[in-house]
């Protein structure tokens, strides 16, 4: 397809996250470059001069805004001639297979891809000189270069994620927090070994709700329905979370802010983090209780120590933790552990009062 036919184009800009937008080319920067690029070539931006912008992983072929683009193209056959974006390694991080798949899907609708770097060249018929054309004779002179860039982008992401996720898994198994704090806690950066790491400490506004849930549950004097009524009377509401648009650029609303329910209560009391045990996917949903120095046999219900603990090893059917003595007291785990009973999720089929070796 040559650039002398209709000149309607769609512009697509993408970043992986708000952080990557700050560190690299932002959506605004990409849009400005692409707008100038198409203006210099006399292309009309459709629909209605709108640029499609998205904050989403380039490793995924299924993206909300990209899906919207294909929906528009399919609903307006023959209207879109060009699909313009900044550069191949910004458009996709899924490698040549992903890149070629999207390119062929666009070509199936008569849409040609163009990057502002000028790497992608128009498709040519290698048998044009003899007046014949076959599927195999239609090729792009830049196909190899495009493939190399797409695969390089994928390899770069693999290397980055391997280093980043690998280290995050190590930190998680050492007991440090990587993601958002659990309700009742808040994240705090501490200096350990000359490096800043994140732990969870009690949230001064919300820890009281969690503590009261477990204290009432451990006392055994209230039904779950009565506990819920009491916690709500204290002012408990679920945490507010932002709702974003499909491009993940604008906040369009919020969720949360609702009272506690019996179902939510029963979910919260089964979370081992409230007794200082970090148990999640990156610990393989296992943990082991072990503190160093003087060995001491205790029952779980009698454990009264400041939090947070640091999970230092994942071993099936046990729970191993190390106490950060430098931190101020957080949620006392004694009554919390007593309330778990047979529902305690870290160690399946274990008695509630099982004995564990710990050090002080």
Structure write-up:
The protein has 2 domains: 8-154, Rossmann fold (3-Layer(aba) Sandwich), CATH 3.40.50; 185-359, no CATH class. The chain has 10 helices and 15 strands. It has helices at 18-23, 27-40, 64-75, 88-91, 95-107, 143-173, 207-219, 224-233, 262-268, 334-340; strands at 8-15, 44-45, 52-55, 82-85, 112-115, 124-125, 138-139, 185-192, 195-202, 241-244, 251-255, 295-299, 309-313, 320-323, 355-359. Strands 1, 2, 3, 4 and 5 form a 5-stranded parallel sheet that branches. The chain has a two-stranded antiparallel sheet with strand order 6-7. A two-stranded antiparallel ribbon has the order 8-9. β10 (241-244) and β11 (251-255) form a beta hairpin. α7 packs across α10. Mean pLDDT is 77; it is low at 288-360.
Describe this protein with a few key phrases.
360 residues; 15 strands; alpha/beta; 2 domains; disordered C terminus
Query: How many beta-strand segments?
Result: 15
Number of helical segments with 4 or more residues:
10
Strand content of the residues, in percent?
A: 15-25%
Helix-and-strand structural type: alpha/beta
Order of helices and strands: EHHEEHEHHEEEHEEHHEEHEEEHE
Net shape: elongated
Question: Roughly what percent helix?
Answer: 25-40%
Mean pLDDT: 77
Q: What's the gist of this structure?
A:
The protein is of the alpha/beta class and about 350 residues long. It has helices at about 20-25, 25-40, 65-75, 90, 95-105, 145-175, 205-220, 225-235, 260-270, 335-340; strands spanning about 10-15, 45, 50-55, 80-85, 110-115, 125, 140, 185-190, 195-200, 240-245, 250-255, 295-300, 310-315, 320-325, 355-360. The chain is elongated, with a radius of gyration of 28 Å.
């Amino acid at each position: 397809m040559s650039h002398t036919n209709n000149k309607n184009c769609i512009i697509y800009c993408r970043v992986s996250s708000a952080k990557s937008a700050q560190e690299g080319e932002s959506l605004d920067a990409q849009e400005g470059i692409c707008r100038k690029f198409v203006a210099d070539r006399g292309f009309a931006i459709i629909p209605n001069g709108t640029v499609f912008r998205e904050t989403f992983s380039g490793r995924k072929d299924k993206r909300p805004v990209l899906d919207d683009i294909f929906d528009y193209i399919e609903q307006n056959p023959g209207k879109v001639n060009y699909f313009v974006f900044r550069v191949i390694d910004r458009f996709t991080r899924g490698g040549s297979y992903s890149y070629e798949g999207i390119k062929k899907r666009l070509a199936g609708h008569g849409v040609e891809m163009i990057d502002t770097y000028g790497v992608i060249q128009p498709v040519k018929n290698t048998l044009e000189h003899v007046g014949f054309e076959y599927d195999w004779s239609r090729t792009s002179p830049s196909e190899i270069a495009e493939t190399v860039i797409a695969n390089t982008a994928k390899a770069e992401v693999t290397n980055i994620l391997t280093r980043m996720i690998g280290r995050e898994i190590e930190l998680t198994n050492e007991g440090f927090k990587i993601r958002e704090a659990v309700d009742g806690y808040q994240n705090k950066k501490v200096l350990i070994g000359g490096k800043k790491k994140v732990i969870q400490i009690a949230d001064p506004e919300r820890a009281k709700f969690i503590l009261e849930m477990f204290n009432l549950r451990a006392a055994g004097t209230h039904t779950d329905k009565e506990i819920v009524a009491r916690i709500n009377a204290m002012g408990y509401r679920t945490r507010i979370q932002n709702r974003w648009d499909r491009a993940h650029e604008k906040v369009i609303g919020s969720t949360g802010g609702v009272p506690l329910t019996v179902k939510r209560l029963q979910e919260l009391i089964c979370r081992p983090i409230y007794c200082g045990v970090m148990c999640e996917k990156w610990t393989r949903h296992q943990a082991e209780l072990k503190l160093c120095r003087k060995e001491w046999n205790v029952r779980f219900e009698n454990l009264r120590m400041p939090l947070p603990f640091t999970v230092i090893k994942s071993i099936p059917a046990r729970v191993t933790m190390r106490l950060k003595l430098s931190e101020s007291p957080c949620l006392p785990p004694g009554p919390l552990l007593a309330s778990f009973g047979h529902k305690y999720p870290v160690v399946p089929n274990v008695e509630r009062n099982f004995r564990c070796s710990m050090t002080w």
